[in-house]
Design goal:
two-stranded antiparallel sheet; 23% strand; 70 residues; alpha+beta
Amino acid sequence: MAAQDRHGIEQDAEHRYWYNIRTGAVEQGFQSPAPDRVGPFNTRVEAEHALEKLRENSAKWAADDAADDR
């Protein structure tokens, strides 16, 4: 399902926001190679906080894995 912009127009991944893990920059659309970016994010602000979200997800997945191992 594509995200909607502030006008309610559907956005595909090509026009959404990405966080470039190599440069630390937020990009709109496919500006850099796929291995260098994470996303897509619906907003620039979400993409700016990509590393925080990745850390949160990683911690949650590690906790889930630990619980499964018990």
